[in-house]
Amino acid sequence: MFVLVQHYVTDVQTFWSAVQHALPTLPPYLRLHQCLPTRDGSHAVCVWEADSIRDVRSFLETYVGHAGRSLYFPVENADGIAMPSEVAITEPAE
Length: 94
What we know:
Structural class: alpha+beta
Radius of gyration: 15 Å
Order of helices and strands: EHEEHE
Largest sheet: 4 strands, antiparallel
């Protein structure tokens, strides 16, 4: 599954230093596809691939949980554009 993580960083220096230390220790069951930080490092959106949200959360909170708040969401895909599979899409009126 793909997991989107929104990071709200309260301690920018500590957070990004922890990220630098965490990346080389990624377990084989986690894959980071994208990390998109703001220029000042106060926010980031990351797309992960894992078996569960719990796997991503357990790994990340160990490293960066003390330096901000993160929200975790399952998403439809990591590449390209997707529409939510549980929403009925109607054709536009002509």
